[in-house]
Write a structure and sequence with these properties.
The protein is mainly α. The chain is built from two helices and no strands. The longest helix is centred in the C-terminal third of the chain and has 18 residues.
């Protein structure tokens, strides 16, 4: 499962502005929910 692992990592570690924003925002919401 190299493709699957890469995809997941790329989605969050993507240098793209759109992708990065989405991952960052989504993570932020998750953290807030936990807090």
């Amino acid at each position: 499962g190299h493709d699957a692992s890469s995809f997941c990592s790329i989605e969050v570690w993507h240098p793209t502005a759109g992708q990065k924003s989405y991952g960052k925002e989504r993570r932020y919401v998750s953290r807030l929910d936990v807090l």
